Amino acid sequence: MFLIWKGGFQLGEILKRMFRNSNEEPQTNPLSVLRQAIHGVTPGIAVKARRVGGSTHQVPIEIGSTQGKALAIRWLLAASRKRPGRNMAFKLSSELVDAAKGSGDAIRKREETHRMAEANRAFAHFR
């Protein structure tokens, strides 16, 4: 959770406004939306570059829950920064709602990572 701690007061204000924006939609609990978004974006497997015999292979590796959640938070923040919008709180709340529903750039990034791991399954024995 170090990714969220860094930023201090300004980050606290962004999160407070984001929860307020999420709360405007009827029958949504902002914390459950946040949990669903992080859970939906968290990857179970990733690829890592390994140099074997003069060539570099993308080797699929299984990642733990802590590292997966850190990646998910990083992807959510990056996707929300890319979004067009008024301010970071609005962009982040929009991305979280989209991720909780199963769409958005962060979900696309997770699917792309899983596709890469599946495509390079033949190199799994290089772990």
UniProtKB/TrEMBL annotation:
Q: Which organism is it from?
A: Mikania micrantha (bitter vine)
Taxonomy of the source species = Eukaryota, Viridiplantae, Streptophyta, Embryophyta, Tracheophyta
Q: PANTHER family from the xrefs? A: RIBOSOMAL PROTEIN S7
Q: Which GO terms describe its molecular function?
A: rRNA binding; structural constituent of ribosome
Q: Name one Pfam family in it.
A: Ribosomal_S7
Q: Which InterPro entries match?
A: Ribosomal_uS7, Ribosomal_uS7_bac/org-type, Ribosomal_uS7_dom, Ribosomal_uS7_dom_sf
How is this protein named in the record? Answer: Small ribosomal subunit protein uS7 domain-containing protein
The entry assigns this protein to a family as follows: Belongs to the universal ribosomal protein uS7 family.
Provide this UniProt record's keywords sorted from A to Z: Ribonucleoprotein, Ribosomal protein, RNA-binding, rRNA-binding
